[in-house]
Write a structure and sequence with these properties.
By secondary structure, the chain is α/β, with parallel strands linked by helices. It has ten helices and 19 strands. It folds into three domains: about 1-265, Metallo-dependent phosphatases (Purple Acid Phosphatase, chain A, domain 2, 4-Layer Sandwich); about 270-325, no CATH class; about 345-380, no CATH class. About 25% of the residues lie in helices and about 25% in strands. Helix 2 links the parallel strand 4 and strand 5 (about 75-80). The chain is elongated.
Length: about 375
């Protein structure tokens, strides 16, 4: 049996106020092409289908197009809600859609949703666990003390009567750790402060493969078969160096599983550039046409630059963010500030000198010092 695993589509997402819908449409079309080429028996969509609980109409339309095309491929589709989704909205029509091979677990109803498939080696059990919180699970298990996310998931799995002699797959959307080891995180992911939502990978011992969503970097945690597929697009600059992909699973008899990844190519890359303005402009203009990539530019110039973002946008029209890395942006080497010491005993010129140092991380020049001294004399001398 062959399955395709992906997650964290975040349809409708905006990155630095740039809509990603066009990019998402292209990447979903690419996933459809891969599906037609690989011809898997099923597709595992591990949550965060939308970016918001109330997605815009364009996002709903794009998901509708994607799922409609998938259904025509005659494969089984397994979809769960993530922490960004509205479980009830995602669950709408799920019983009708199941007749067309689209299995949705949006809301948690007290147990794992179970779908049975078969191949030449026998049964394959697919279990769907939407994103759950302890309070939600506690309502279905009143006799148990469910204080943590791990308690919640353990309780659900323990009540599911899983036959470990057969092949079992779980689709889930949670933050998984392995002992003291944590997976790689990205800026665009939502993780609870203090790690209260972590679940140890040992919880999934009964499963031959755990198809995870929630973290945007493709990676395994605990063992090779507990795996985050990662998001198909880069959604923050902390993901700039990641290679996005979809994961292909090839099951033979129990205990034999092949895993490989197929790279994805975005319509526009999301990348970082750094250097003096003139160098970045020269690099950009050396290309035949302006780069359409999403850019974070970090300028290292020491001098003031007029309309840096405007100049860069001529070469990089989709620049998202501009930062500076120079002596003025680095932490102060001198601990002095305008509020340091006895302010009442300091002259206006001394206070301004300290303010200038704090803002620019360098002393005023002799010329600047003279100009400021003349201004203060013209406006009432050195009195505070």
């Amino acid at each position: 049996m062959k399955l395709l695993h992906t997650a964290d589509l975040h349809i409708g997402k905006r990155v630095n106020e740039f809509s990603m819908l066009e990019d998402q449409k292209v990447i979903l079309e690419q996933i459809l092409r891969i599906t037609n080429e690989v011809q898997p028996d099923g597709l595992l969509l591990a949550g965060d289908i939308y970016d918001k609980s109330v997605p815009p109409g364009e996002a709903v339309g794009l998901l509708d197009e994607f799922l409609t095309e998938l259904v025509t491929c005659k494969l089984q589709i397994f979809l769960i809600s993530g922490n960004h989704d509205s479980p009830e909205r995602l669950n709408f029509g799920s019983r009708i859609l199941q007749n067309n091979g689209l299995h949705i677990a949006g809301t948690f109803d007290g147990s794992l949703k179970h779908i049975l498939l078969r191949d030449t080696y026998g049964p394959v059990h697919i279990y769907l666990l939407p994103y759950v919180k302890p309070a939600v699970v506690q309502a279905f298990y009143p006799g148990q003390d469910i204080a943590s996310y791990e308690d919640a998931v353990r309780a659900v799995i323990a009540s599911s009567d899983i036959d470990t002699r057969e092949r079992n797959i779980l689709v889930a959307h949670q933050f998984i750790t392995s002992g003291s080891n944590e997976p790689e995180r990205c800026d665009s992911e939502t993780i609870s402060v203090g790690g209260l939502n972590n679940i140890d990978a040992s919880v999934f011992e009964a499963f031959d493969y755990v198809a995870l969503g929630h973290l945007h970097g493709p990676q395994c945690i605990g063992r090779e078969t507990v795996r985050y597929a990662g998001s198909p697009l880069k959604y923050s600059f902390s993901e700039a160096r990641q290679q996005k992909s979809v994961t292909i699973l090839e099951f033979a008899e129990k205990g034999k599983l092949g895993i490989h990844q197929i790279p994805l190519t975005a319509l526009r890359d999301l990348r970082e550039i750094k250097g003096p303005l003139a160098e970045l402009l020269r690099t950009g203009t050396s290309q035949d046409q302006p780069s359409e990539d999403y850019i974070r530019a970090t300028l290292t110039d020491e001098n003031e630059i007029y309309d840096a973002i405007g100049q860069l946008r001529q070469v990089y029209p989709n620049i998202m963010r501009l930062d500076f890395a120079n002596s003025r942006s680095r932490p102060e080497a001198d601990s002095r500030s305008a509020a340091f010491g006895d302010v009442a005993r300091k002259s206006r010129l001394e206070l301004f000198e300290e303010f200038y140092l704090k803002q620019n991380n360098q002393e005023m020049s002799e010329e600047q010092h003279k100009i400021m001294q003349d201004i203060l004399e013209q406006t009432g001398g050195d009195r505070i």
